[in-house]
């Protein structure tokens, strides 16, 4: 069901283009605002207007917002290449391959960890929203490595709390462009959605607190292998923080990586891998650690970086 919002143009938007005013008022991208205007879903003082028309303070806006898209439910089917590293009554730990999302989201039509587990007959916790039951943390679709999913309700609660309270040790390896200076450091910079509204995230004043620790493991001619520990778990956190340092992950075109270097090393996605995950087992209370080896594409790229150095 559509949602109609009515409001006056604030004094601060006097003289702005209509698409810019709608973007500011509702948090849309300019492109999305223009689409609504062209579709006739924006009225100014009861009449349709052009996206480039200038608005005046006090003019009455009526904006018909489309219904929010519905999140699809997981498709229960086995995911080729997804290995089970550990399973017991409380948790299942997987080695997530490339091209697999943690759970269904709007716009994602590919395989998911949750669907893969259900399709292979694994039980997962029923806690959480229906489309992401048992999911206590996520990896980007093209980030590989260790991921834990809760099977029991008590494990779901305990692990969600552990991730929130930052008592989980999350370790990643990233091959980044160039050589960070200093070789070891911490990025403490807030992250939120990029103002462009194009799906990227960025370091933004007033964003969510985000802390990334990094240490150089090995330096090559054009890149560096970093060991990274996350304190927080924001979407795209490592990718955003490395790009903010001007050392984006090799192959991460979304965040400004050099396509020439990526091609030379044979990388077709961001070189980023969740190498280990340590936490207090929600059933036994024991501190447990699970690790994952580099997948073939990342290992091959690393060998090329060494060969050319």
TrEMBL record:
Signal peptide: none annotated. InterPro entries: PsdUridine_synth_cat_dom_sf (IPR020103), PsdUridine_synth_RluA-like_CS (IPR006224), PsdUridine_synth_RluC/D (IPR006225), PsdUridine_synth_RsuA/RluA (IPR006145), RluA_PseudoU_synthase (IPR050188), S4_RNA-bd (IPR002942), S4_RNA-bd_sf (IPR036986). Its EC number is 5.4.99.-. This is Pseudouridine synthase. Pfam families: PseudoU_synth_2, S4. GO terms for biological process: enzyme-directed rRNA pseudouridine synthesis. It is an enzyme of class 5 (isomerase). PANTHER family: MITOCHONDRIAL RNA PSEUDOURIDINE SYNTHASE (PTHR21600), RIBOSOMAL LARGE SUBUNIT PSEUDOURIDINE SYNTHASE D (PTHR21600:SF44). It comes from the Bacteria. It catalyses: a uridine in RNA = a pseudouridine in RNA. Residues 16-72 form the RNA-binding S4 domain. Keywords: Isomerase, RNA-binding. The active site is at 140. The lineage of its organism: Bacteria, Bacillati, Actinomycetota, Actinomycetes, Streptosporangiales. The keyword Isomerase applies. It comes from Thermocatellispora tengchongensis. Responsible for synthesis of pseudouridine from uracil. Belongs to the pseudouridine synthase RluA family. GO terms for molecular function: RNA binding; rRNA pseudouridine synthase activity.
């Amino acid at each position: 069901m559509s949602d109609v919002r009515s409001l006056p143009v604030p004094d601060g938007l006097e003289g702005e283009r209509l698409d810019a005013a709608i973007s500011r008022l509702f948090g849309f991208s300019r492109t999305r605002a223009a689409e609504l205007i062209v579709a006739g879903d924006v009225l100014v003082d009861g009449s349709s207007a052009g996206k480039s028309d200038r608005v005046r303070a006090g003019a009455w806006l009526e904006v018909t917002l489309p219904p929010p898209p519905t999140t699809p439910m997981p498709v229960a089917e086995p995911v080729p290449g997804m290995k089970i590293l550990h399973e017991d009554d409380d948790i299942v730990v997987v080695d997530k391959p490339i091209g697999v999302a943690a759970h269904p989201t709007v716009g994602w039509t590919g395989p998911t960890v949750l669907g893969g587990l259900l399709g292979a007959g694994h039980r997962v916790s029923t806690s959480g929203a229906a489309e992401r039951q048992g999911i206590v943390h996520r990896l980007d679709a093209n980030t590989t490595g260790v991921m834990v999913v809760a099977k029991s309700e008590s494990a779901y609660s305990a692990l969600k709390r552990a991730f929130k309270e930052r008592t989980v040790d999350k370790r990643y390896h990233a091959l980044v462009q160039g050589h960070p200076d200093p070789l070891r450091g911490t990025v403490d910079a807030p992250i939120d959605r990029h103002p462009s509204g194009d799906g990227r995230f960025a370091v933004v004043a007033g964003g969510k607190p985000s802390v990334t620790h990094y240490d150089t493991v090995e330096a090559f001619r054009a890149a560096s292998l970093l060991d990274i520990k996350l304190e927080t778990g924001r979407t795209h956190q490592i990718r955003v923080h490395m790009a903010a340092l001007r050392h984006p992950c090799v192959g991460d075109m979304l965040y400004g990586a050099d396509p020439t270097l990526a091609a030379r090393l044979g990388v077709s996605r961001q070189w980023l891998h969740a190498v280990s995950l340590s936490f207090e087992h929600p059933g036994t209370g024991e501190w447990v650690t699970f690790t994952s080896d580099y997948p073939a594409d990342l290992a091959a790229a690393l060998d090329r970086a060494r060969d050319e150095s």
